Give the backbone structure.
Amino acid sequence: MTIDMSQFLQTFYEESFEGLEVMETGLLDLDIGAADTEEINTIFRAAHSIKGGSGTFGLNEVASFTHLMETLLDELRDGRRDVSQPVVDLLLHSVDCLREMLTANQNEEALDEERINELKAQLDATLKGDDSAVTAEATETVQEAGEAVASGWHIVFKPHPHLFQTGNDPLRILRELEELGTLNVNADISALPPFTEINPEESYLAWTMELLGNVERATLDDVFAWVEDDCDLEITPLAGPEKPAAEAPSPAALKQEGKADEAISGELVVERRKTDRRGGDRRGGERRKSGSDGGSIRVAIEKVDAVINLVGELVITQSMLSTLGENFDMGQLQKLRDGLGQLERNTRELQEDVMRMRMLPISFVFNRFPRLVHDLSNQLGKQVQLEMSGESTEVDKTVTEKLTDPLVHLVRNSMDHGIEPSVEERLAAGKPEVGTVWLNAYHKGGNIVIEVKDDGRGINAEKVLNIAIERGLVTPDAQLTPEQIYDLIFQPGFSTAEQVSDVSGRGVGMDVVRKNIQSLGGSIEIASEPGKGSCFTVRLPLTLAILDGQTVSVGDQSYIVPLISIVESIQIKRGRFRHVAGKGETFKLREQYIPVVRLSRVFNVAGATTEDEDALLVVVEAEGKQVALLVDDLHGQQQVVIKSMEANYQRVDGISGATILGDGTVALILDITGMVQLAKGQTEQSPPTGGEPEAA
Amino acid sequence: MNEIQTVEDESNVLATSAADQYLTFVLAGEEYGVDILRVQEIKGWDAVTPIPNTPEYMKGVINLRGAIVPIIDLRQRFGLDLLDYGPTTVMIILKVVGESKERIMGIVVDAVSEVYNIPTSELQPPPDFGGVVSVEFVRGLASVDDKMVIVLDIDHLLNSDELVVLDKASQSSGVEG
């Protein structure tokens, strides 16, 4: 019976990536010098599962690579080797490499052989006990490598049936091999059909050989050079009796000698020329398969059970109501009301529970940060530790996906700009040597709040202001509060890094962060105390699928304004509108001029109120700018489910989506960012830079 | 009686190859046909939610079982005289296959007519009308019971201008953003 293994492949990849995360987390948690055996065990088990799985699925490269890691972990576990920083770093790099290999396999791309071989060599060298090889170049001599080949080779040679048609004769190869040394040959005749069915032009035999003698790999390759495409060939060095891995030549060493062709990474590496070749061909022919990756989430059983229970209740309520409906008379009105109430409760609970299924703990985002901080602190030469709290705070999957990049940027920013560059500077400020970056998440109202905090220098308001003036972002005589100055950091093209570094400071930083967060319907704030540190607070809605909306009417149309962007709604008094040089209208609100957008005009809606006194102004804010929308009336607030306009139509300017109201009709949701853009085009007069504290 | 007739009609319909079946509708006295497999639903005219700043023929969007579906007035799309929507006015909801994805769109027509079997071999290439309906939207002409049926290429019809607008929109938003 054959089983289609490919159906399990996706699961294998998912589990392997999870395993890699476990390994990574475990490695980062390891205490150098005094590691917890249980921790190492966890890492070991993860590696072992990946090895087993990849072997099953024929990913031999992955399996052999993991085997090396596993061997090293085994030594760590048994206490034969101390947990040292170089070893942990090497293992971390190996985890990265393994992840790349798996990704490459998943997308059917070619593997980065060079990187793999290099790491394999380092692992080999480490296993051999030469710790210095991890950092320093491996410096083995060819003589050592020679010893390894001296013991001989194990060769599995399976010609494909059409071998004869290519003009090759396996017998010639066997004869040539015989001349190289002592050759033990075992023929495999299992594929041989009954005599009457033999096609004399096809090859049915396979051979397993042991070639003893001092033979170089290149010589063997020469022998098989003509047939390597037409056979399955495995050439492995014969294992020596003692310290097998130690005797294997290191590819790095061989490369130094300019004999990269000979690169063999110990007895564990099985060369599968055929497979490699196929992988290479595919790269050219096929595009990545990632299009089929629809994404999946793991949901806790309890959540699914809760939904099933609720569906059960819903069915009961429904059948009760339909029974009631069959013989209805007015005497049963109370019963009907009760039933409808129950139905409403069921539906609401069901909605909540289904939404909860999409909720993931924020730790899915946070998990990558220990590694990021670890790598960055090495790269920056700063000692930084990461403290995380509130990892179990749940947030919608769509939000977690889009949250990662902005958070990475904020953490990098804190480490690069926030934490003092030198220990001396920290000590002088009376702070501990090791800097700290905090990541904290919690729920507040309908939002999730994420704080990225550091105990670094804080934001130098003066410096920020000077740069802003230099870049022409504000006028030199502008009087700004510290908050407004901090806000300048989010202006496009602003970067305080004196030296543009690899980590941050490409000048495309914080404005993109704020834009991304705002596109999720969230906001970001800065608090900073010079010399003490800074704190970036990100506020995001719990879900992107549902929005709290305010219904407004313009003429005969209703629109939904996202509640989060509404600052206030006001009735207009006569004469508060000003026209600015024929460009547009502004409205004076508490000594500040806000551009007015008449919805009826921009959307060409008929029947809107013409008298300004009857209309209402809804002041909304996006990208730190305020705009007043002129509408006829305000209606109720309600939660609406966001539907995409692009699914069947296209993006519409000023509209971010649509929703279905209680009566089944469609209402459009206003795109506040688009409205602000619109106002910008409509009037040159834009409010002063920065958000207004009173509006927040 | 009516019910029995419908059943008979349906069995007739099922007897022949579905690929050659067309739903026809009336628009300004002419009969037009669309591939019946593309028809999702036929609805009576109902209020739509207009979308601001879109072409006149774009009537708006409706809620079709939770999906937001745009509705296009075919008379206006073809530049024909306007006709007040009456009791026979219907929206035909169609599946449109575009370059990248399938979309659901609706067209408003004067009335639905019949279901005909028209073998592909009987489709004649359209002559140049020089106006009303651009030839590029017409897949062919067929004669059924001495009537002419204009078979429309809905993929082309409902993708052409809409897609152009789409490109403009995404470009301008790109510039702004």
About this structure: The helical segments of chain B are 2-15, 74-77, 154-176. The beta strands of chain B are 21-27, 30-35, 39-44, 58-64, 67-73, 90-97, 102-109, 111-117, 138-144, 147-152. The longest helix of chain B spans residues 154-176.
